[in-house]
Design brief:
InterPro entries: Aldolase_TIM, PRAI_dom, RibuloseP-bd_barrel, TrpF_fam
Keywords: Amino-acid biosynthesis, Aromatic amino acid biosynthesis, Isomerase, Tryptophan biosynthesis
Bound molecules: ligand LARABZUK
Largest sheet: 8 strands, parallel, barrel
Strand order of the largest sheet: 1-2-3-4-5-6-7-8
GO molecular function, one term: phosphoribosylanthranilate isomerase activity
Structural class: alpha/beta
Helix content: 25-40%
Shape: globular
Strand content: 15-25%
Number of helices: 6
Pfam families: PRAI
Family: Belongs to the TrpF family.
Length: about 210
Amino acid sequence: MTRAKICGITRLEDALWAEALGAWALGFVLVPSSRRYLSPEAVRPIARAVGPLVVRVGVFANTPPEAVLRQMEAAGLQVVQLHGDEPPEWAEQVGRFFPVIKAIRLFGPASAGWLSYPAEALLVDGASPGSGRAYPLEWLEPLRPHPRLIIAGGLTVENLLAVLALKPYGVDVSSGVEAAPGRKDPEKLRGFLGQVARFNGASQNQ
Ligand SMILES: O=C(O)c1ccccc1NCC(=O)[C@H](O)[C@H](O)COP(=O)(O)O
C-alpha cells in the first residue's frame, strides 16, 4: 500500500478536494521563502476544516526545534517534515512531541548514511524542493532498505507508475498537481490520486 501526500496546500478548497479524492496526508509549507508559504495562523483554519483521518504535515527548513514546536501548536498540525539541513539532534528534540519525516535533497546518488537518521520516515526529494524537477530513480537505491520511504520530486501522473512500481511507503507531490504555484488543479489531483488508488487495488489482487 502506497500512501499519497499532497504538499504545498495554501487554499481551503484544495485541501477539501485532496481529501475527497483520497489523499492520506496534506503538507503545509512553513518556510517563509517558499512561494507556497502560509503562516501558522493561516494554516490553522484549513487544517481544522479537514476530517480527522487525514494527516496534516508541517514542512520546515532549518527552523530551530523550539520554533517548530511553537508553530506546529499554533497551526494545529500533527507531523513535522524537516526539509533543510537539520542535525539529528533537532529531529530528536522535535520527535519527543511529533512524528518526524526527514526530507533529503538529492544532488546525486543517495547516501546510505541517511538510514540511521532519527525519523519515522525519509522523504527523498530533488535538489530544489517544490520545483517539479525529477531525478534518476537509481539515485534512490541506497535508501530502498528503509521501511518508510516517501518518494517526491517532480512526480506527475505521467511518471508516477515507475515510482509506484518501487512500492514505496508514500509518494509526495506538489507542482505536478498544480494549476499555478500554491493552487491545486482538481483534475490533476483526480488523475494522480486515482492512479495511486488503482495501483494499490491492483497490487492487493496479486
Ligand atoms: O514546495 C515548496 O515550495 C517547498 C519549499 C521549501 C521546502 C519544501 C517545499 N516543499 C516540500 C515538499 O514536500 C514538496 O512536495 C516536494 O518538494 C516535491 O515538490 P514537487 O517536485 O513540486 O512535486
